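User: Please work through this fold.
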Amino acid sequence: MVVNMSRNAVLVSAKHGVYVGKRMELSIEWPSLLHGRIPLRFVAAGEVVRFDASGFVVKLFGHQFRTVKRKVIPFYAFSDSKLLSPVGGLSPAHGLPR
């Protein structure tokens, strides 16, 4: 699990040991959506520069954002239509404007 990240490094919480100097690629689900609807993934290459009992730090060589091929299901799709009204005036059945 990612604990913290900056422009140059990522701190990862881990139970398994990773040796310093190991090169790796990280693929992290990004918490916000492109244009409010397209899921993103942050992909980075780097090298482990520190390891201790709680996790390790990867110094990044480069990174990019990639789009993810999965459908984002609106929150109201999981709700009981009698309890919650649709968000933004959308029809719960089709996700189309009323």
Summary: The two ends are 41 Å apart (CA to CA). The CA atoms of residues 38 and 67 lie 7 Å apart.
